[in-house]
Amino acid sequence: MTQTSSHESCTVVSGLGESSPGSHVGLDILKLDDHAYDRALSCVHCGLCLPVCPTYTQNGLESDSPRGRIYMMKGLADGIVQPTDNVIKHLDLCLDCQACETICPSGVVYHELLEDTRAKLKPKRHFSLTDKLVQSIFLHGFTKPLRLKLMLLPVRILQKLGLWKMIIKSGMTKALPAQFQKMQQMLPDDGPLWERALNAYYPPTDHLRDGKPRATVAMFAGCVGSVMYQDVNRKTIEVLQHLGCEVVVPRKSTCCGAIHHHAGEDKGARDFARQNIKAFLGLKKTPQYIVNNIAGCGAGLREFDHLLRDDAKYAEKAVDFVSRVRDVCELIDELDPPTPSHPVNKTITYHHACHLLHAQKAGDPPLRLLNRVMGLKIVPLEEADFCCGAAGTYNLTQPEMAMQLAERKIRNIQESGASIVVMSNVGCAMQIASEAKRLGVTLTTEHPVEILHRAYVG
Amino acid sequence: MQQHPVINQLTQIVGDRNMVTDPNELRVYECDGFPIAKGMPLAVVFPENTDQVSAVVKALNQHELAIVPRGSGTGLAGGSVVYDQGVIICTSRMTQIHKVDLENRIAIVQSGCRNSSLSEAIACTGLRFSPDPSSQRAATIGGNVCTNAGGINTLKHGVTTNHILGLEVVLPDGEILQTRANQCYDGIGPDLPGLLCGSEGILGIVTRVWCRLVPDPKAFRTIYAVFKSNFDACKTVADVIASGILPTSMEMMDGQMIQVVENAFHFGFDTSAGALLLIEVDGVDEILDDEMNVIMDIARQNNAFDIQSCKDAKRRAELWSARKKTFGAIGRISRSYCTMDACVPRSMLPEVIERVTQIGKDHGLQINNVFHAGDGNIHPILLFNEDKPEEVQRVMQASEVILEYCVSVGGTITGEHGVGVEKLAMMHAMFNKPTLDMFLNIKKTFDPRQRFNDAKLIPSDKLKVELHQAPLANVPGGAM
Fold first, then answer.
1. B83, B455 Cβ separation under 8 angstroms
2. Most exposed of A402, B105, B133, B300 (fewest Cβ within 10 Å)?
3. Crossing angle between the packed helical segments B389-408 and B349-362, to the nearest 10 degrees
């Protein structure tokens, strides 16, 4: 208690609290990166981030709001908050969707603070065997397309034989830990046994400029994306070919490292970043653009300059790399494309992927392009800019909150009146589709490129 | 550490999931939007309905604990900080909109419902809840009631008290007060909602609010006028009001702020300008052009060198976004800044702004101005370097001189941010002893034991909170 003196009736207290740094000698202090700590200081505590935070609006806890989390992280760094299970629970529950950064009037770069804190906390934490196993699958399985294809193969075979449904129905999967059940639930019902790799080169097919390609574009196919959503990659390439671009696919490109970075494994993330920089900037002809169609990967690619800022050999290259990165819709929009000639007679609604809207600040191009498609009716979606709960691997690590957010998203989609929801991120698509299936709601997810492909290529 | 016996009792009332008691988790509740004032709570309770609030208050009274209500914690005067190891009752899980009655234009909401949530829920009806503080997306309606929140619309459409038809309040003894049993205005007896509105949570905790809904204006005109000097812009404001026209809002930005905003957001403002006025009129389309022309003439007479008008929604949104982003932009040029909040008579604005600038110069400080000129609500922003204690002292001195000056010309110590703990000491400059005694008597009538958010708004004879030597750093713009 901060009582300084007490008279017969009037108590005098200090109104400034007792939380001066260093006043709790002997307690743990989490040493944050100076740059990240500085981010915490620029929060002026206005609270404008509260209503845009999915977790705060879901449970009303200050400690599950961006402002509260910043305060806790600063407290950890100052030694006035201890990394107890309760505190870590709130930091784990953050989706890192970055909606708070879009609204923040003071320009706080929240995600850098969060990611640094998570990385620094990791060695101090104890994880269960299941958690370790799941994380290992993410870090070492998902990020390597070959391993992912091998892991998927038995399931795909069972699917083709019609046995997979029986296994699910039998309830055998219920014995699995929650994270594995969720993985099973998210898996699309159908897919090729063995996804083929992309070609190394695709020439332009139309809209050439003076007989030459309008741009040289290097395609970033992604790790999970190239196994689960290769079709979207193909359509991305075909639309770009149609618009006069030549497209190259570097053989040595690898995962963007976002899974590692978000799991506090910065060393792994930096290794991926360097390998990608080598793969893309080392091409015979340096590509003008590095295009991707998964918002989460795009945001990861655009973090390279931050990740490698202290790497003497790569810092400058990383800045160059990042300057070339574009989301596919952002790139098409930049190419100033003609009005598409094929009508697409559908009613859709559009969900903003957080990592495109908030992290990459490229939320407008997809809607701008879709609005030009003849016959396409776009109906508004309430809370279109709210996270659906996918958030990378969040739906596997925080299934309860992820489920609540998905239900909220699906309710809004139903109220929009559209049965097709379009979004620029495979993670959102898997989350929304699988949760809709669980809830018995009929809806289809599509990538904007799928619609643009029909509109441009036919 | 031994757990306080009240914790068990509270848990029985609201359940485990509606309690926070771990000191590490409680840390985030030690301050609100005025992060200078800090106090650690013993616990935070999240009731879900009025009965739970009442039971919680009664339980806390049994243990003679201090109680502080809190909504979203966006207040800018430390009003929801708890001292004396008390307990915070937070309304963030009382967010329901119970009923929207379009025919009678009333919405009944729980006090933790956010201001914008109500507006969004009724957006398609052509009605709205008028109070619009800049924090409206985050701030709760209960909090709006407690601070009698204003906003950009205030000039024409009034503050929160003008839009409240009834209140349900849990009193400091735990009993439930309800003003007006039905949904009609009755005008019977003392105006209790009037008394409770703006009482900063010292008379009880608001649990339900009957909100008046008003039609959205059918049409509007937005006028943007650029001047060489602050004086000319302020004179325009005074002249417009004197002409008999009542705009919805009249917002002013000085030359330095124009540069800051333009550099940060590139709206296309003339950075050589000395001041900029943003004026809006709304209402019936047919009369708006006449009003607009009168305002533009007045601006011209006061040497405005660039006057534009628009009725285009997109440009209008851009212009207002420029205004709303100003405070964020300051954060980009100076991490430490102190936003003051005072009201002065509109007719005095030209002199006041010149005097404020002079006070800044006398103290060696840069002062920027962006404010609700229409209602004389000024927000001088004092920029400083937090690492220089001597400069911080100068900021504190300058802000005191400014507030005293504002009171001396017939103004007030706060226009909209409230008193909380921040300006408690200034209450003596504002009111004489008999008035302050009467305030305290009212407080004691509601709360004889003085445990309900005591030592906020009204100087208490039981608890004194000292904020001396507090650097007024990093105080955000809030509802400007």
1. yes
2. B300
3. 150
| Three-class DSSP category at B421 | coil
For B219-313, CATH gives: 3.30.70.3450
Contacting B residues, span 401-430, partner chain A, CB-CB under 8 Å: 421
CA distance A63 to chain B (A): 6
Any idea what the CATH number is for the domain that residue A373 is in? 3.40.50
Structure-block tokens of residue B87: 């307990």
Comparing A262 with A408, the larger pLDDT belongs to A408
> Which alpha helices (DSSP H) does A145-265 contain, by range?
145-161, 163-170, 178-186, 224-228, 230-242, 258-262
CB contact at 8 A, A61 and A89: no
CB contact under 8 Å between A15 and B29, yes or no, is no
Is there a single domain that holds both residue A328 and residue A209?
yes
Sign of the CA dihedral running B268, B273, B275, B280: negative
CATH number at residue A242: 1.20.1050.140
In terms of Cβ atoms closer than 10 Å to its own Cβ (0-12, 13-18, 19+), residue B77 is buried
Burial (CB count <10 Å: 0-12, 13-18, 19+), residue B39: buried
Q: Does A5 touch chain B (CB under 8 A)?
A: no
pLDDT at position A142: 77
Q: Which residue in B25, B114, B115 has the most chain A C-beta atoms within 10 A of its own C-beta, making it the best mutation to test that interface?
A: B25
Q: What percent of chain A shows pLDDT beyond 90?
A: 62
Q: Does A23 touch chain B (CB under 8 A)?
A: no
Structure confidence at residue B269 (pLDDT) = 84
Q: Which residues of A touch B88 (CB under 8 A)?
A: none
Query: What CATH architecture does domain B328-408 belong to?
Result: 2-Layer Sandwich (3.30)
Q: Give the one of A13, A47, A72 whose C-beta lies nearest to B465's C-beta.
A: A13
Residue span(s) of chain B under CATH 3.30.70.2740 come to 328-408
Q: For residue A396, what are the domain limits?
A: 346-456
Shared-domain flag, residues A161 and A97: no
Q: What is the pLDDT of residues B348-402, one digit of tens each?
A: 998 999 999 999 999 999 999 988 999 899 999 998 877 778 887 888 889 889 9
Look up the ipTM and state it.
0.91
At A129, the amino acid letter reads L
CA dihedral B343, B345, B351, B355 (to 10 degrees): -30
What are the angstrom distances between the C-alpha of B287 and each of A330, B220, B225, B282, B284?
Answer: 44, 10, 20, 9, 6
Q: Are B203 and B67 in contact, with CB atoms under 8 Å apart?
A: no
Tell me if A51 and B135 make a contact (CB, 8 A cut-off): no
Top residue of A49, A50, A62, A89 to mutate, by most chain B CBs within 10 Å, is: A62
- What pLDDT is stored for residue A21 in this prediction? 44
Q: Is B37's Cβ below 8 Å from some Cβ in A? A: yes
Could you tell me if residue A404 is inside a domain?
yes
pLDDT at B466: 84
* Continuous segment of H or E residues that includes residue B107: strand B106-110
Per-residue pLDDT at A22: 43
Q: Which residue of A has its CA nearest to B48?
A: A60
- B5-90 has which CATH code? 3.30.43.10
- Picking from A334, A365, A389, the residue at the C-terminal end of a domain is A334
- List chain B residues with pLDDT less than 50: 470-480
Cβ-count burial of A41 within 10 angstroms (0-12 exposed, 13-18 middle, 19+ buried)? middle
Biggest distance spanned by C-alpha atoms of chain B: 72
Please state, in angstroms and rounded to a whole number, the distance separating the CA atoms of residues B151 and A201. 58
Give the tokens for residue A212: 């030459």
Every domain range in chain B assigned CATH 3.30.43.10? 5-90
Please tell me whether residues A312 and A206 are part of one structural domain: yes
Dist. CA B309–CA B315, nearest whole Å? 10
